[in-house]
Amino acid sequence: MSYVPLLISHYFTINKPPHHHPVFNLNRMPSEQRSFSFLQHQSHIPPQFIWPDHEKPCPHPPPRLDVPPIDLGGVLSGDPEAVSNAARLVDQACRKHGFFLVVNHDIDMKLVDEVHRGTDFFFGMPLEKKERALRKIGDHCGYASSFTNRFSSKLPWKETLSFRYSADRHLSNIVECYFLDVMGEDYAAFGKVCQRYCEAMNSLCLNLMELLGISLGVGGGYFRDFFEGNDSIMRLNYYPTCQKPDLALGTGPHCDPTTLTILHQDDVGGLQVYVDEKWHSITPNPQAFVVNIGDTFMALSNGIYKGCLHRAVVNSTTPRKSLAFFLCPRMDKIVSPPKELVSEGNPRIYPDFTWPVLLEFTQKHYRSDMKTLEAFVNWLRQKRIHSS
Ligand SMILES: O=C(O)CCC(=O)C(=O)O
Is the pLDDT of residue 19 over 80? Predict the structure, then answer.
């Protein structure tokens, strides 16, 4: 007999949680029941994890998206033909759905393996240890599981650890300091590995920004310069097994509010992207990184490039991991498209904003979904009308 659904529904009937409050009363639930290590063996899953019918995962795995990965080998060595070929492929993908894969990216795959191993180690720890890094309400860094989620329905079947990375030279050890300060000496080595991984991701992002500038016709330096000194986010995603994978989702359908996401998934599979009005599976390729355009880049390109709608499904046999690096602008940068991308035929779509305002919107007012940018723009306009 499973007690968790009973405990949860009891809590809901008595104490309807106000919006923005933790869903479960953590103090009332014994620690072992507040963890996925308990939930993943239950044949009944709590109703808060059951998604509405129209959003449930497809009963059979959807078709694979057949996209050849973009080879960055020639691009990184500056071969003009390779650059123009890659820019053309990036342009096609980003105008259509905002998703592509890259190989020969020059990232050390041993480093990627080390991050995956450290991620297994972290999520394999008892809840009390992981909760040393517990994310606070309204914050975007720290350990979170759906038990600490601020929403009361459509909960994702996952645990995450998110932390800040900054390319500002004054904050050059920010990731390793975070691990040491928040989780202690046991995590110092993993913190160093994550610091190196974020630096590698930063460098890949800047190279991709150069390619995106070329593909949009504004020149290689434009977006590269804009993202120098970026203030980004790294997230380790862990999806425990689920006995009802057809009812739940690891990550619901959403576009990333950030600028560009570089994702490495392990070999389990579960990432799906929405292309041509259908969900498609993205088969894991250990040598490749998945690249998604986020809402902030959609705004920077004046809507020419599309934010990629994606989600992650879970399964009943094998836990899954993914490593997501979210490139974000420096906090004081104004997100505004270059003048070359605005014309009479393509007038401005989104107002100017700064990244911390969009981040705050997604942390305090709105759960990221496929309409975040639209909702944010309406919210911003209302806010500006009221304050004028
Ligand atoms: O794990 C995945 O494949 C997707 C992760 C994701 O969408 C996210 O972290 O925002």
Answer: no
